[in-house]
Design brief:
Helix 1 crosses helix 2, helix 1 runs parallel beside helix 3 and helix 3 packs across helix 4. It contains ten helices and twelve strands. 41% of the residues lie in helices and 20% in strands. By secondary structure, the protein is an alpha/beta fold. It folds into two domains: 179 residues, Alpha-Beta Complex (inorganic pyrophosphatase (n-terminal core)), CATH 3.90.1640.10; 114 residues, Diaminopimelate Epimerase, Chain A, domain 1, CATH 3.10.310.
């Protein structure tokens, strides 16, 4: 029989890369033949961990055409798989988003739980079934949990994330500066890297009668980026809006050191919407918000407001 393909969204982030690798290990240790196949280019943060800890890269595949069964990790929307995976092939979904399209996958067993990271759900499978996990998978899952919870400072963080990390780090034995170095790995946005990052972590949604896109950047040095490259950001967002025929687009820039957000938009309709749901105030094209809020938290607020 053909192996089961385990994959995530096109151009997967660290949570998807870590979760797919670790879940494939779990299934292969519990007598289910599976392989990891990433569709598109992994995010820089994932590459950092793979490179820095000498972990073998998963295979990159163009689509799921060569597989009869697919498991999605950290993915549950048709939009994010962009026609690369037939929905009826998906037999399982493991994700952690409040807003999703799991009902569009008719043959899928669905596990969607509101924890900080999909990797927490994968770690729990090893814990609950008393299956030994490799150090490589433990490192990846630790990285994903650290990233997705913003080093446990994000509002999505749960006690389950903390327990999973503690279990994993007994095996991973990560250095004390792990989180700092991980976040530094995605904070260089000089030159064309800015546009690459915005495009690489762009998400869009249909809400009410609006097509909405949110660019999210998590980094150290967000204030300096906004001050020095605001016009570049606005131009990139405007080009994306025209190309994708969007109604609304904005950037959520998360400052990891100072624990605050900077929202960027030069569209007054978008600004008014964000001011209402996030209790912020734009000064020109930028609004600053204390504490940390992530895209996955903003999406339900937008959806509720736009679908009234």
């Amino acid at each position: 029989m053909k192996p089961i393909l385990i994959t995530g969204y096109v151009n997967p982030d660290l949570d998807a890369v870590a979760g797919t690798i670790a879940y494939s290990e779990f299934l292969n240790k519990t007598s289910r033949n599976s392989v990891v196949g990433l569709i598109g280019e992994p995010h820089d943060e994932a590459k950092y961990i793979l490179d820095n800890y000498h972990i073998k890269y998963p295979q990159i595949i163009p689509n799921a055409d060569d597989f009869d069964e697919v498991i999605l990790v950290d993915a549950s929307d048709l939009i994010g798989i962009e026609g690369k995976i037939a929905p009826e092939k998906v037999i399982e979904i493991i994700d952690h988003r409040r807003v999703h399209e799991a009902d569009k996958f008719p043959n899928a067993k669905v596990q969607i739980e509101l924890v900080g990271s999909a990797s927490t759900l994968i770690a729990e499978k090893f814990i609950q079934n008393n299956i030994e996990i490799s150090r490589e998978s433990a490192i990846l899952l630790c990285g994903a949990i650290t990233s997705n919870t913003l080093n446990f400072k994000g509002g999505v963080t749960t006690d389950r994330d903390r327990v999973a990390f503690e279990y994993l780090n007994k095996i991973a034995q990560l250095p004390s500066d792990f989180a700092k170095e991980l976040f530094k790995s995605k904070s260089d946005l000089s030159g064309d890297k800015l546009k690459e990052r915005i495009l690489g972590d762009l998400a869009w949604f249909n809400m009410g009668n609006k097509k909405v896109s949110i660019a999210q950047i998590e980094m150290v040095g967000a204030k300096e980026l906004i001050e020095n490259r605001l016009n570049d950001i606005l131009k990139i967002l405007e080009d994306i809006k025209k190309e994708m025929k969007l109604d609304l687009i904005f950037q959520n820039t998360i400052e990891l050191d100072e624990c605050k957000n900077y929202f960027v938009s030069n569209d007054r309709e978008t600004q008014k919407l964000l001011e209402k749901i996030l209790d912020i105030k734009f000064n020109g094209s930028v609004a600053e918000r204390p504490n940390l809020i992530m895209r996955k938290q903003i999406v339900p607020l937008l959806k509720e407001e736009l679908e009234k």
